[in-house]
Design brief:
Distance between the termini: 74 Å
Strand content: 5-15%
Structural class: alpha+beta
Shape: elongated
Largest sheet: 4 strands, antiparallel
Helix content: 40-55%
Order of helices and strands: HHEHEHHHHHHHHHHHHHHEE
Number of strands: 4
Length: about 475
């Protein structure tokens, strides 16, 4: 009997220990489950709020995912409040959500738009392949300096001895009135003595009228909207350097400086090819209207030029394409013996009383002719035709006096030129000159279009990832949780 009593006590104690162990184990499991449930609920709440604040318009049109952290009122505090409400709904009455706060975020503009660049890369990785830039490199041979140093050296050697002020770069006229040069003022730049024969006179007349609008097709329309630059992501992020041809063609020094003025884009076509192709696919241009509901009509031109209006961006882009074409055309003209003989003959007539200046004036006239051809090229491009990057005797279009006869050009044959480059090809080249600015201006355009339906939308409030801290109580346990959510 005595042994039985010991056994009963032992079993009772054992059961008590087992009950205690069970209760402790149950409590640990319960707390662990509650913590796990809280973590899942926090992740779910973050995803839910992210989905509610994702711009469907931007994703559907531009394939870019971002969270508008400022949708509605309250900014990040409102995001935290929405997450807290979602947590409370998912967890139920047994839990207490003590606090929720946003601990940080990665914006679309952060780190030089790195998240934007990454999403562009992802778009081409998982989307349709784009070979536009590869084709462009093939068409140009990646040659962004068409006038070789050897050609420049040969020119320098030929004009050596002509009178030019080394400090100002202006040619000093040694002639008198009626000598074939403008001798009415001392130290005046070389000009034509016989205006009726000098093609530069016609070029200057057209330049005064504005070349870009002189060649503008009839019926062209620009948006009347004006961009508020200070409200754009690109505000304060550098500026596009100026590219324009000096059309006086009276200074050899100036001519040399603008021979390869449009160089520097080839490397960026390779390193930034996906982004350039992305812009070409997503945004409107003068010759390619993809969407009819945009804030600006000329979006690619804005990305390149960054001016507040379509008209200003059109003008600047036309000037810059002309610079690109000028280098190519001048390089070819130097190799065309027949046309250079024509230039040389005119230069001889204009410098008959000061023959030492003949070689120098010859190259100034050649520059003028290359410019005339370049304007003709752009005239064709904005009418939807193609222009070969490298010219030859058969596809050269103009005479030296052709700038006033552009309407007489026979441009129908350009449609069959499979190797030619169209207007948008040249826009991609221009984008390659400054990709850093281009990323911000692409986001400008997206913001402008998105804000037409959502006036408060700003890229500076757009995030691609954010962190959340939450304090949650369950019974006597307290959880400090952190979640990261993003695309």
């Amino acid at each position: 009997m005595k042994n039985r009593g010991y056994i009963t006590v032992f079993v009772s104690l054992l059961l008590m220990v087992l009950v205690v162990v069970y209760l402790v184990f149950f409590k640990i499991v319960d707390i662990a489950a509650a913590r796990s449930k809280s973590g899942v609920a926090l992740s779910t709440a973050c995803s839910s709020v992210k989905a509610e604040r994702t711009s469907e318009y931007i994703f559907d049109r531009y394939h870019i995912l971002l969270v508008d952290m400022n949708r509605g009122d309250g900014g990040e505090e409102a995001v935290a409040r929405d997450i807290k409400e979602s947590l409370e709904e998912n967890l139920g009455d047994s839990y207490s959500v003590d606090s929720v706060s946003i601990s940080g975020r990665t914006g679309i503009l952060d780190d030089d738009c790195e998240a934007f660049k990454e999403q562009i890369r992802d778009y081409f990785l998982y989307g349709v392949a784009e070979y536009a830039v590869d084709e462009l490199i093939t068409k140009t041979d990646g040659n962004d300096e068409p006038i070789t140093q050897d050609a420049i050296n040969a020119m320098d050697s030929e004009v050596d001895g002509a009178s030019e002020d080394s400090s100002s770069g202006e040619i000093i006229s040694e002639g008198k009135e009626g000598t074939g040069l403008s001798g009415d003022k001392p130290n005046k730049k070389v000009d034509a003595g016989n205006d009726k024969k000098d093609p530069r006179k016609e070029v200057r007349k057209v330049k005064k009228r504005g070349v870009a609008f002189y060649i503008l097709p009839e019926g062209s329309e620009f948006s009347e909207n004006v961009v508020d630059s200070e409200d754009m992501p690109s505000y304060g992020v550098g500026s596009w350097y100026d590219m324009e041809i000096d059309t006086d063609f009276d200074s050899y020094s100036k001519l040399k400086k603008q021979m390869n003025k449009g160089s520097g884009w080839a490397e960026n076509l390779v390193t930034g090819g996906e982004s350039i192709a992305y812009a070409n696919r997503m945004f409107n241009s003068f010759t390619d209207e993809k969407f009819d509901d945009t804030y600006l009509k000329l979006e690619m031109e804005y990305i390149i030029a960054g001016k507040p209006t379509d008209a200003e961006n059109y003008k600047k882009v036309i000037n810059q394409i002309t610079v690109i074409r000028f280098g190519c055309n001048f390089a070819y003209l130097l190799t065309d013996a027949s046309r250079m003989a024509e230039v040389s003959t005119l230069a001889t007539a204009l410098t008959i009383f000061i023959p030492v200046l003949q070689p120098l004036v010859k190259y100034l006239l050649a520059g003028c002719w290359a410019y005339v051809e370049s304007v003709a090229d752009v005239y064709c491009l904005i009418r939807g035709h193609k222009i070969p990057y490298f010219k030859n005797s058969e596809n050269w279009k103009t005479s030296m006096y052709g700038i006033t006869k552009l309407a007489e050009l026979d441009i129908d044959a350009d449609d069959s030129d499979e190797t030619g480059m169209d207007y948008n090809d040249y826009l991609m080249i221009l984008m390659g000159l400054n990709m850093k600015t281009a990323y911000y201006r692409m986001l400008d355009v997206i913001q402008l279009n998105a804000s037409q339906d959502s006036p408060d939308f700003r890229m500076k409030n757009a995030a691609v990832a954010y962190g959340v801290n939450a304090e949650i109580s369950y019974k006597e346990a307290n959880f400090t949780l952190h979640a990261e959510d993003g695309y």
